[in-house]
């Protein structure tokens, strides 16, 4: 566990802006359906201000036409993955991770590293009807970077100045700049039955990710009750899901709960930089989540809230992490 000053890779300073600009031409040729803002924070359900302390994601979801590049990509992939893209999504995300004690400038060796993460991503979503429900498949690609060029230190310091919160002093110990590329796949098997004029949906799920940010395999089980929907909201490290309602118009709602277990083979945010010496902690390979929340919709507006408690991710962690995400969506 070393304390090293961040290295000034000036070329990376323009990376977040270049990545955001790169999404524009793709979105301009898409049949847009929905624009979402997702805000995650541990302060929503906890008094702590550490670990996964903040996340902001902008999402543009749409139904691709037959000639759209995402649809051509779906047809080129093995049928066992996805035959047809019923939906697609672009996203741009920024996340901040810190130790629990942010007021000391000294390296805290037994708590997680300071890290800022910025990335852009694209997802394909497919659904296949079954005799008693449907099978949902999500494919994800995320490209971005972790490190000083994410500007996480400046962002957190400014937010804490405006809110008169504790001043973060340990960002000199953050992870260094490193480009990240991650692939992910997730499949959910939904069994759906009518109940009291609504829909009860339940079933298992499995996912896997491969990349220098996360490499893991997971399995879980979810339950949803209310108006019909394609899925339920997901929380990091899982990328965004196709959680929108399937019916349009009027007031709609559902509640949900789920459990998920991960075998985490690699987590750059805990293991430290891949190609340089940096702060790291002793990561636990087995991690478990319990989550619950609800979603509401009225006409073209949708809102969802998801809360999660996660078991210890590294040895020496004092308390399980708790955080939540609030998503606001406008149908276009």
CATH domain topology: Lipocalin
Order of helices and strands: HEEHEEEHEEEEHEEE
Number of helices: 4
Going by CATH, the homologous superfamily would be: Outer membrane protein
Protein structure class: mainly beta
Helix content: 10-25%
Total strand segments: 12
CA-atom Rg in angstroms: 20 Å
Explained architecture:
- Residues 1-24 have low confidence and may be disordered.
- This protein has one domain (10-331): Lipocalin.
- The chain is 11% helix and 48% strand.
- A hairpin with a 2-residue loop joins strand 6 and strand 7.
- The protein has four helices and twelve strands.
- It is mainly β and 332 residues long.
- The protein has a twelve-stranded antiparallel β-barrel.
Secondary structure layout plus pairing:
Elements: H1 15-28, E1 32-41, E2 51-62, H2 69-76, E3 87-98, E4 115-130, E5 133-146, H3 152-162, E6 178-195, E7 198-211, E8 214-226, E9 251-267, H4 268-271, E10 286-298, E11 301-310, E12 321-331
Briefly summarize what is shown.
The protein is mostly beta strands and 332 residues long. 11% of the residues lie in helices and 48% in strands.
What are its keywords?
332 residues, mainly beta, Lipocalin, twelve-stranded antiparallel β-barrel, 4 helices, 48% strand
């Amino acid at each position: 566990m070393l304390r090293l000053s961040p290295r000034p890779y000036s070329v990376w300073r323009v990376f977040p802006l270049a990545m955001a600009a790169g999404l524009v031409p793709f979105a301009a040729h898409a049949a847009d359906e929905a624009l979402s803002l997702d805000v995650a924070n541990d302060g929503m359900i906890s008094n702590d201000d550490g670990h996964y302390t903040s996340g902001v994601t902008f999402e543009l979801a749409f139904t691709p036409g037959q000639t759209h590049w995402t649809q051509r990509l779906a047809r080129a992939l093995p049928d066992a993955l996805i035959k047809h893209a019923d939906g697609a999504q672009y996203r741009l995300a920024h996340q901040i991770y810190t130790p629990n004690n942010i007021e000391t400038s000294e390296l805290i060796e037994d708590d997680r590293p300071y890290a800022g993460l910025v990335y852009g991503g694209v997802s394909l979503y497919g659904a296949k009807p079954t005799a008693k429900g449907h099978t949902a498949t999500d494919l994800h690609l995320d490209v971005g970077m972790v490190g000083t060029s994410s500007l996480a230190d400046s962002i957190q310091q400014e937010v804490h100045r405006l809110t008169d919160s504790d001043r973060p002093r340990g960002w000199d110990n953050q992870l260094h700049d490193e480009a990240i590329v991650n692939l992910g796949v997730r499949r959910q098997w939904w069994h759906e039955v009518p109940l009291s004029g609504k829909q009860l949906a339940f079933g298992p799920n499995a996912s896997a990710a491969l990349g220098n940010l996360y490499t893991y395999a997971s399995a879980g089980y979810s339950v949803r009750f209310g108006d019909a929907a394609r899925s339920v909201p997901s929380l990091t490290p899982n990328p965004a899901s196709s959680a929108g309602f399937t019916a349009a118009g009027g007031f709609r709602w559902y509640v949900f709960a789920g459990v998920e277990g991960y075998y985490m083979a690699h987590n750059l945010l805990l293991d430290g930089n891949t190609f340089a010496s940096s702060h790291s902690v002793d990561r636990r390979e087995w991690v478990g989540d319990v989550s619950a929340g609800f979603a509401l919709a009225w006409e073209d507006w949708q809102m969802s809230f998801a809360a999660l408690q996660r078991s210890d991710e590294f040895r020496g962690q004092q308390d399980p992490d708790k955080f939540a995400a609030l998503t606001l969506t406008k149908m276009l």
